[in-house]
Amino acid sequence: MARRRTLDEISLEYDHARPVHPLRALWRNRFYLGDMFNTEGGMAIVLMDALLFVPIVFAAFFYPWQALSVGLAILAASFAAYQGWVIWERKHR
User: Which end of the chain is least crowded, N or C, by CB within 10 Å?
Assistant: First the structure.
């Protein structure tokens, strides 16, 4: 009886790419994100916005227009912060 191949072996054979398992990497590092991405720049802004997403969605059930205006304000502030970071990076290189 032939041995059953794992999904990782199949993807390595046909896609010629090493499979990535982010959840296994997080578990192995005990959910420490220090070396997985750089917290300077755009990714930190996206992560902070993701933390604010859930409360805004819950508030939208009861206060839809106010939640929309707060969400747009957060989006505008995030865009301005990101553009400021881009300009700062260009001047300091």
Answer: N
**33: exposed, middle or buried (Cβ count in 10 Å: 0-12, 13-18, 19+):** exposed
13/38 Cα distance (integer angstroms):
31
pLDDT of 44 above 80: no
* CB-side neighbour CA atoms (13 Å) of 48: 14
Contact 37, 43 (CB under 8 A): yes
Three-state SS string over the chain comes to: CCCCCCHHHHHHHHHCCCCCCHHHHHHHCCCCCCCCCCCCCHHHHHHHHHHHHHHHHHHHHHCHHHHHHHHHHHHHHHHHHHHHHHHHHHHCC
Domain ranges of the chain: 7-91
pTM over 0.90: no
